[in-house]
Amino acid sequence: MVETFETDVVVVGCGISGLAAAVSAQEHGAKVRVLERAPREERGGNTRYTESYWRMKSENEVSDDFTERFAENAGGHLDPEVIKDASGPYEGWPRLLKSLGFADPELVATFAELAGPTLRWLTGFGVKFDFLPNYFIIQSTTRMAPVGGGLALVEALAAHAESVPDDIAIHYETTMTSLLQDEDGRIAGIRAVVEDNRPVEFRAKAVVLASGGFEGNPEMLSHYLGTDALWLRPVARGGYYNRGEGIRTALDLGAAPAGDFGSFHAQPVDPRSGQAEPVVLSYSYGLLVNKRARRFIDEAPGMVDATYEAVTREIMHQPEGIAYAIHDGRMEDVPNWRKAVRSDQPPVEAHSIEALAEALELDPHELAETVEAFNAACAGEAGFDAMKLDGLATAGLEPNKSNWARPLDKPPFLAWPIIAANCFTFGGVKVNARAQVLNMDGEVIPGLYAAGEVMGIYYRTYTGSTSVMRGAVFGRQAGIDAAMRHARANQP
Ligand SMILES: Cc1cc2nc3c(=O)[nH]c(=O)nc-3n(C[C@H](O)[C@H](O)[C@H](O)COP(=O)(O)OP(=O)(O)OC[C@H]3O[C@@H](n4cnc5c(N)ncnc54)[C@H](O)[C@@H]3O)c2cc1C
From ligand 1's centre to the CA of 241, what distance in Å? Predict the structure, then answer.
């Protein structure tokens, strides 16, 4: 006999979206069971490791550019005829439109509207938010963060869960494998495995999928991102736990896909470092070369916080998925530049470009030629301003560098190797503003919710500092709706 648990709401995952769902469902009267693949001391997935910046301008309001950035990155080249109907009330949308893979205005508006209330809800568990320092020397938007980062969110919500053991139980080292559906098409629970691959079942009135993306699953990465995904690794340990079962089982059951399946949030990191998020974001003031010692991209097309993702994705496509950030002694003119490098490994350092190349195992002649050509294309020092887009560009190079282009000729020369790290994947399932999962025909799959990385909302460029917010906002929505609609429906 398979061991079976009965409850109102099952939540798969113990990061921000899972815990927000579990606690809000409990607050609205449901009994909840949370599944977590990791052991207790590593609970929390990606959320555990993030500093958790929120794209907010105050505790009440999202940043001024929030909606605009989502609109710019709503999909590929969207069909205006199909999208026309999206300007009317959601209830009137054709089913086709509801199921379409794009960041729809209904979802984005709800996201923006509920961000403030959700942040304030979290402060009720003792979390404090502030404008905390980050690794960007200059930035294009406003960001707040919880003091103590994502770990503080996990600990605060898990502490609440543990304080109500009759209402919320967390099952560690328990991995969801598939969904249960009854003959009416309603979701009836999930199957999971525990130690020794022993199957268990959780029967429930609603299921919230909050199990992250597929950044920890090489088969899905290669399938959706292509063979260069070999060079990727999760940006922190939590990503290894996210292996895509939530997304895959929902798709198998007919959920509509949403989010850019071929893409992911890329971060430039030092491959020599084993710590969480060892980013190297100084490169916009220097040069990037690949293993052949050649430049391959404009290092400074805009502010680094808005452009590093695209640059990093190109690094993944270079030979062996690696590049090198090259700097010279002029870096000391950039205020606080060291805060842009989070690697615990020292830079490779030399007194000539040729010696630097040798230390990096690059061809010294190639690197010398690349740097000479770059230096010759620079206009000089005049007009350099590290604190704004200064337009100091190279001329006649392919590719040109658009800002902060000064000759690299002042020893010592420094370099960091950089690879693309996968912060999280973009592909997921389509949800409505209540976090209910929609099927391919735009209908709700009764009893099925998704939040956080499992829900697809990002295309092209990630609207930075919105993924923890997404988990909190839609996790909380899922918990409330699951409790009100399913768990309490039969109660007096
Ligand atoms: C180092 C780092 C820095 C980041 N910085 C930011 C930032 O500043 N701002 C921002 O908005 N975002 C940031 N992100 C991204 C953000 O942290 C995540 O996208 C977000 O926290 C994801 O929340 P989640 O609840 O969807 O998933 P997670 O927090 O990853 O939680 C998923 C949970 O599901 C569990 N799980 C997975 N599969 C199963 C299964 N089959 N059965 C049971 N359990 C399962 C996992 O163990 C985990 O507990 C960062 C991420 C990292 C790693």
Answer: 9
Please tell me if the CB atom of residue 13 comes closer than 6 angstroms to any atom of ligand 1. Answer: yes
In the CATH scheme, what is the code of domain 268-421? Answer: 3.90.700.10
Pure H helices in 300-394: 304-316, 353-360, 364-377
Whole-angstrom Cα distance, residue 429 to residue 217? Answer: 17
Per-residue pLDDT at 87 = 87
Neighbours of 180 (CB within 10 A): 17
pLDDT at residue number 83: 84
Q: Report the distance separating Cα 97 and Cα 84, nearest Å.
A: 10
Print burial letters for 133-146: b (CB count within 10 Å at least 16), e (below 16).
ebbbbbbbbbbbbb
Class of domain 3-263+426-487: alpha beta
What band does 442 get if pLDDT is binned at 50, 70 and 90?
very high
Joined tokens for residue 74:
């709503």
The tokens 């010398």 sit on which residue? 368
How far apart are alpha carbons 156 and 152 in whole angstroms? 6
Beta bridge partners of 35: 12, 171
Q: Is 312 in the pocket of ligand 1 (CB under 6 A)?
A: no
Alpha carbons 226 and 106: distance in angstroms, whole number: 32
Q: Which residues in the chain are classed under CATH 3.90.700.10?
A: 268-421
Does the beta carbon of 471 sit less than 6 angstroms from any atom of ligand 1? yes
Measured between alpha carbons, how far is residue 276 from residues 189, 340, 393 in Å? Answer: 34, 15, 34
Residues 452, 157: Cα–Cα separation, whole Å: 16
Q: How far is the centre of ligand 1, averaged over its atoms, from the C-alpha of 454 (Å)?
A: 10
Distance, in Å, from the CA atom of 438 to the CA atom of 255, rounded to the nearest integer, reads 6
Q: Measured from the CB, is residue 49 less than 6 Å from ligand 1?
A: yes
Provide the pLDDT for residue 452: 98
Closest atom, ligand 1, to C-alpha of 16? 25
Rounded distance between C-alpha atoms, residue 139 and residue 150, angstroms: 21
State whether the beta carbon of 175 lies less than 6 angstroms from ligand 1. Answer: yes
Ligand 1 binding pocket includes 46 (Cβ within 6 Å): yes
- What one-character DSSP code corresponds to residue 139? -
Is 238 close to ligand 1, i.e. is its CB under 6 Å away?
yes
- pTM exceeds 0.90 for this model: yes
Å from CA of 232 to ligand 1 middle: 17
Residues in the chain: 492
**pLDDT value at position 491?**
57
- Our answer on whether the CB atom of 467 is closer than 6 Å to any ligand 1 atom is yes
Residues of the chain with CATH 3.50.50.60: 3-263+426-487
Cα(48) to centroid(ligand 1), Å? 7
